[in-house]
Amino acid sequence: MLGSDIIAEAFIRHGLKRIFTFPGGTIAPTFDAIRRKNIEILCAHHEQGAGYAALAVARLTRRPQVVMVTSGPGVTNLATVVADAYFDSTPLVALTGQVGTADLTSGRQVRQCGFQQVDAMALMKPISKATFLPLSPSDLPGMIEEAFYVAAEGRPGPVVMDLPMDVQLADVDVSPDVKPRMGVPPNEPEHSLINKAAELISIAAKPVIFAGQGVLLSNACRELRLLAESRGIPVVMSLLGLGAFPTNSALALGFPGHTGNQYANRAIHEADLLLVIGARLDVRQTGTCTDQFVPNGKIIRVDLDLSELKYSRVRSDLDIHADAQCALTQLRQALEGKSEPDLSSWLAQIEKWKAEYPLAYDTGNELLKPQQVIQTVNRMTAGKRVVVITGVGSHQQWSARHFDFDFPDRAWLTSGGHGAMGYDLPTAIGAQLERPKDLVICFVGDGSLQINIQELQTAVINKTPVKIFVLDNRRLGLVSQFQLFNWDSDPTTGNKKSPDFTAIARAYGMQAYTIAKAEDLEPMILKTLAFDGPVLVHCLVDQKENVSPMLLPKKTMDKMWPYA
User: Fold this and answer.
1) Looking at 122-131, 179-188, 257-266, 459-468, which range is the least confident one?
2) pLDDT reported for residue 104
3) Helices 3-13 and 28-36, interaxial angle, to 10°?
4) How far is the CA of 322 from the CAs of 59, 278, 329, in angstroms?
5) What beta strand segments (E) does 406-487 contain?
6) Dist. CA 339–CA 342, nearest whole Å
7) What's the predicted TM-score (pTM) here?
8) Does the CA dihedral 117-123-127-133 come out positive or negative?
9) Average pLDDT, whole number, for the chain?
10) Which of 15, 24, 216, 250 is deepest in the core (most CB within 10 A)?
């Protein structure tokens, strides 16, 4: 067998149905081994397209997926995806082709050792959990197994393995007897800390639970819901944590922070106890006034990543280093038999804030509003299994506010920490491949779509029936809004000229329509959802619609723009 066969056997051992790629010469030997093992190969039209499709499957299954690219530009093009996986805790194994070991180990002090050579290890090290460079086929069995293990264990993330071409082609005498490395048991919390947390919760009159993506990563949605509903505690969710608790529940407050729901921010600001589970509490979630975050209450933090606790941006009164599922299970057990404060006045106050700060927008003119598109799709897909994907920008914030999520039946995928435009379309393709019977909806802005618009061809070739709603406001809205706030001009982001997205989609062989009036919205959505194939709907929406309300710098959580 060859070195490339060892890699292909690892894919089978880890239950991979397919791998994702944009090909090139230095990774080609392994493709032949994959073909001989009858593993499906999804070939995108750009390395980002392949990588994001793999991320979608990893996010939905919580299991490492594989993307393979060639050396040089293949590596540099994939760096954005690897960074996205790192910051959003997505398990990914990235295999990059490389020139031969003779060039790599020559010791020649030159700029480049071989055609399309780049130092993938140095490039990827800051944005990955681990990097591996096998210089002999004997290195491969242990390294590939370690790569899958590291990607999934603890806080998940990407692992990069750089594969010299001669190592892939080298003869190996015997197939190595390698078994998948067993994961470590989930991190159990200290019982004394759980008991302290239970005591604080049992006396809190205005508690709030802040659920982050850590709840989803630890498969702890059931435990979160049991705790919140048994005690009647309202729940806010981070942008990536949406769906960890049903967003249409009376106890759900949506997502807080910079572009979050105003009543969620008010609840956090007025809480006497904030229980944070698996959320980083970065600046987009807390605002810049960290000394005034939960000013009159205590903060309990549960996180698997000890560094997030050790280097917290905000004060924490009790840190619990633990897996979210374990902590929530034990916390609910510790609360059994403890007093339950009457939260009726607190919940009534939250309902008043919901009435005072509704998720409303001006519909006084005839222009189609982006929120209308999202809300109407949400209403017309009620009761269906749906995966919603967005790019990054204004449309991302509107989707988070106006669509209902409840994982796994109504799942939500977006780029959070890295905030990468172009995440949208290829991620939707990957989601559809993983969930062929589910409805996959992609809300995308005119700017974000054009980053990876070539993946329209991938959707058509693979017959993935994704439904793409382009919310075209002819501006890079969120950055335009930022520029106008600060400098009264938006020279690089305002009044952009968009192409005819309908014509482009049709040129790729996709069904496509254009819509500009609210009265045509329902019939168009009905037609789109009924079509058995990929569809793009070019929605010409109000160019001047801003993301509002918004938490601006140097403002506390209870004071969002526009100010009352």
Assistant:
1) 179-188
2) 84
3) 50
4) 21, 9, 11
5) 410-413, 439-445, 467-472
6) 10
7) 0.95
8) positive
9) 95
10) 216
Q: At what angle are helices 370-380 and 394-402 packed, to 10 degrees?
A: 40
Tokens (6 digits) for 510: 């996709």
Confidence of residue 1 (pLDDT cuts 50, 70, 90): confident
Task: Report the C-alpha gap between 398 and 239 in whole angstroms.
Answer: 11
Mean pLDDT along residues 103-130? 89
Flag whether pLDDT at 559 surpasses 90. yes
- Rounded Cα–Cα distance for residues 47 and 50 (Å): 5
Distance in angstroms (rounded) separating the CA atoms of residues 481 and 455: 29
Q: Give the model confidence (pLDDT) of 286-320 as tens digits.
A: 999 999 999 999 999 999 999 999 999 999 999 99
Domains of the chain and any CATH numbers: 3-169 (3.40.50.970), 191-356 (3.40.50.1220), 370-540 (3.40.50.970)
Residue type, position 343, single letter: L
Q: Output the CA torsion 220→221→224→225 (10° steps).
A: -150
Residue 381, amino acid: T
Picking from 373, 363, 398, the residue whose alpha carbon sits closest to that of residue 524 is: 373
Edge to edge, the sheet with strand 535-540 lists 410-413, 386-390, 439-445, 467-472, 535-540, 511-515
Residue 406: is it exposed, middle or buried by C-beta count within 10 angstroms (0-12/13-18/19+)?
Answer: buried
Q: Residue for token digits 């204004």? A: 394
- Closest alpha carbon to 233 in 213, 249, 216, 256: 249
Q: Where are the strands (E) in 305-447, listed by range?
A: 318-321, 386-390, 410-413, 439-445
**Mean pLDDT across 383-409:** 97
Peptide bond connecting 549 to the previous residue in cis, omega within 30 degrees of 0: yes
Burial class (CB in 10 A: 0-12, 13-18, 19+), 489: exposed
Report the pLDDT averaged over residues 190-203.
97
3-class secondary structure for 63-121? CCEEEEECCCHHHHHHHHHHHHHHHCCCCEEEEEEECCHHHHCCCCCCCCCCCCCCCHH
Tokens of 297: 């209450």
Task: Compute the residue count for the chain.
Answer: 564
The DSSP secondary structure of 275-315, one letter per residue, reads: EEES----HHHH-S-GGGSSTTSEEEEEES-HHHHHT-SS-
pLDDT confidence of 86, banded at 50, 70, 90? Answer: very high
Closest CA relative to residue 98, chosen from 29, 12, 151, 9:
29
Return the DSSP state at 393.
S
